[in-house]
Amino acid sequence: MKSATRVLVTGAGGFIGHHLVKRLKAEGYWVRGVDIKEPEFEPSLADEFELLDLRYWHNTLQATNHMSQVYNLAADMGGIGYITAKLADIARNNILINAHMLEACRLNGIKRYLFSSSACVYAGYKQNTADVIPLREEDAHPADPEAGYGWEKLFTEQLCKYYFHDFGMETRIVRFHNVYGPLGTYDGNKEKAPAAISRKVSLASDGDTIEVWGDGLQTRSFMYIDDCVEGLLRLMASSYREPLNLGTEEMVSVDQLVDMVCEIAGKKLMRLHDRSKPQGVRGRNSDNSRLRTVLGWEPKTPLRHGLEITYRWIEDELRKAGRVEEASLAYASD
Ligand code: NAD
Q: How many CB atoms lie within 10 A of CB 142?
């Protein structure tokens, strides 16, 4: 019975964790959410929500007590500007969270543990061109991941495998490719490209200029949040213990992403490409062959459709905050 299954979601105050809690509750699970902060935009639906800093051992023991399944989504992370600026902080904070979480889960007899890894584990030398060959799971080795954040994710993937090898602990490892959707951070310095571009377009008036990081030709694929959550539940229920891509194969350039958002907004805007800003790898796309084989499923939401929902939500938030009226000032203050 699902209601008897006690599920812990760490990072439940964050973007993916908050959506996952909603879905688990809708499915009838008993859910404990843990984070260092409450969700930003609406209250959590978790049966219990605890504010705990999971870098500390005693907190991971408390969080995992009397739980059956764990989705470990807590991480110090953000968009490319954030993760390239903070190498030591991010690597240290996340290795503390993840090493302590695994051991606490073992001691508390957790039945299934899911670790949220990232496409940032993939080798940089395989992502040097915009028309990149889609990344298969084996392309993470020989290792050349993103500095700091990516190295930590890659090492923790190994740690999950060691916990199965040494203790028989059931671990699942998901490699997300750029997740976007409503209720995600769109301002500050932790937002990702779809949210940042939606904010800039929303704040701009027809004919304005917005700043775009890099030359705009760098490529990525983006996964809508509902697909992400669906994939998480499916992977947790599966018997697959190796790392698995979770993303779409619909690759676009950043300029194409801007085109789509402008079209949704009904605005014609100029772009100023700032090549001094970090742009990450030149090209990245997911190869979903193994995902299709293992789960018999893959994310389906077209980017245009998911972006429309996301853009409208961000525009609405900015309107509620009284910022859309400041349209003509948007470029100057960005
Ligand atoms: P998010 O930043 O919205 O959520 C992460 C949450 O972890 C935050 O709410 C944060 O407060 C919490 N956290 C940070 N340090 C903590 C600590 N010491 N103790 C407890 N909680 C702490 O990010 P997200 O997009 O929801 O990402 C969830 C997971 O997915 C992360 O592991 C992230 O690395 C991974 N991921 C996300 C993406 C993406 O595109 N969103 C891509 C690849 C991987």
A: 7
Is the pLDDT score of 250 beyond 60? yes
Q: Whose CA is nearest to atom 21 of ligand 1?
A: 35
Task: Centre a 10 Å sphere on the Cβ of residue 124 and count the other Cβ atoms it contains.
Answer: 16
Q: What is the pLDDT of residues 38-80, one digit of tens each?
A: 999 999 999 999 999 999 999 999 999 999 999 999 999 998 9
Residues 6+ apart with CB under 8 A from 265: 201, 202, 311, 315
Nearest of 114, 92, 79 to residue 194 by alpha carbon = 79
**Residues annotated as catalytic (active site), given as ranges:** 149
Which pLDDT belongs to residue 1? 66
- Helix (H/G/I), strand (E/B), else coil: 164: helix
**CA 72 / ligand 1 centre spacing (Å):** 9
Give me the count of residues in the chain.
Answer: 334
- Specify the pTM: 0.96
The reply to whether ligand 1 has any atom less than 6 angstroms from the CB of 152 is: no
Cα(84) to centroid(ligand 1), Å: 16
Whether the ω angle into residue 142 lies within 30 degrees of 0, i.e. cis, is yes
* Stronger pLDDT, 124 or 329, i.e. the higher one: 124
pLDDT at 86 over 60: yes
Angle value at C-alpha 240, between 236 and 246, nearest 5 degrees: 65
CA 225 – CA 20 distance, rounded (Å): 9
Does the C-beta of 21 come closer than 6 Å to ligand 1? no
**Which of ligand 1's atoms lies nearest the C-alpha of 185?**
3
> Which residues have CB under 8 Å from 171's CB, separation 6+?
112, 113, 114, 115, 160, 161, 163, 164, 241
Any atom of ligand 1 within 6 Å of the Cβ of 76: yes
DSSP string of 297-329?
------HHHHHHHHHHHHHHHHHHTT-GGGGGG
Structure tokens at 310: 């996301």
